[in-house]
Amino acid sequence: MTLPRLLWVPALLGFAVIVLPVIGLLDRVEWARLPALVTSDAALSALGLSMQTAAMSTLVCLLLGGPLAFVLARSDFRGLRVLRSLVLLPLVLPPVVGGLALLYLLGRNGFLGQLLGVQLPYTTAAVVLAQTFVAMPFLVVSLEGALRTAGERYEAVAATLGAGRWTVLRRVTIPLLLPGIGSGVVLAFARALGEFGATIAFAGSLQGTTRTLPLEIYLQRESDVDAAVALSLLLVVIAIVVIVVARPRAVEGLR
Fold first, then answer.
1. CATH code of 248's domain
2. 223-241 as b/e, with b when 16 or more CB fall inside 10 Å?
3. What's the pLDDT score for residue 1?
């Protein structure tokens, strides 16, 4: 199919909206100080915590969001549309609202926090939970879309041959969904890595415990703009590596 040439104008403008801010960031970098800024103790601590918590939250998203995507894609019951809307709620809520919701659920004065006697806020576990809250819809949407695209014909054939439900799931459905699972995992990890609002509202900013790289960037912006820019560039590079290198077919699978 040959695209109308007129479409290239808004397409290029849309591309510019995404790329030009990154170019502006590159123009502001103090290249002479860059190595020292990105290898400072605070930067390395924040980076390590971000990678650790993003990996943990992505695993939680996969373990909980995977089955949720199956329920949304393969079930048909009253209230399914409402359930899907609630699952997508973190996509449209400001992250700080999600952080406050978690705080008033699991905080010292939250009804579940009081009931269970837990003290999750301002801990590393709170960071993981905040990241999971904002990242899970990305995995669910990606996997649900892959399930609907794959259809049920292969599963139906396997069932007619005598395969049980778990056998069909393990030997047929999951192998077919591996590209979709990979795409969802990459999207969830990238979103968790860049999470800020829910984290600072629910987990605070304690160095070595809850201060992830986005929080470190925010704090450095007030005291050392060059450091904030350098760490922002580091986060951009990591995001590109995650999306392009770690899962090179994630975008190609959408074509």
1. 1.10.3720.10
2. eeeebbbbbbbbbeebeee
3. 63
Please tell me the predicted confidence (pLDDT) of residue 250.
47
Both tokens of residue 64? Answer: 């909980």
Range of the domain at 149: 41-252
C-alpha distance across the termini of the chain, in Å: 14
> How much helix, strand and coil, in percent to the nearest 5, is found in the chain?
80, 0, 20
CA 174 to chain centre: 21
Chain mean pLDDT for the chain: 87
Of 139, 79, 129, 85, the C-alpha closest to 107 is 129
Q: What is the pLDDT of residues 203-234, one digit of tens each?
A: 999 988 999 999 999 999 888 899 999 999 99
* 124 within some domain: yes
Per-residue tokens: 148: 């609907």
Asked whether residue 206 is assigned to any structural domain, the reply reads: yes
Q: Within a domain: residue 246?
A: yes
Instruction: Quickly list DSSP for 68-83.
Output: HHHHHHH---TTHHHH
